[in-house]
Design a protein that fits this description.
alpha+beta, 28% helix, globular
Length: 72
């Protein structure tokens, strides 16, 4: 499934399996924690999409590189 989330006025599609809705909520909580982390906010501007695999968010940049973030 795909859902669009918004963080700091930027919307990004999140791809996740339908049975993992709790991990999507954990991702949103983690993004709220990272709100004042300025390094992460700089990185977020270049994120093209997010893929959820269990409790790991794979943030994919526009150039194809990936950043792995534990959301638990």
């Amino acid at each position: 499934m795909t859902k669009v989330i918004t963080f700091k006025n930027r919307t990004v599609p999140v791809h996740y399996p339908s049975e993992q809705t709790t991990y999507l909520e954990m991702l949103q909580n983690k993004l709220r924690e990272m709100e004042y982390n300025f390094d992460f906010r700089k990185k977020w501007k270049r994120i093209a999409s997010v893929e959820m695999v269990r409790d790991v968010a794979i943030l994919q940049y526009n150039d194809g590189t990936k950043l792995y973030m534990d959301v638990s």
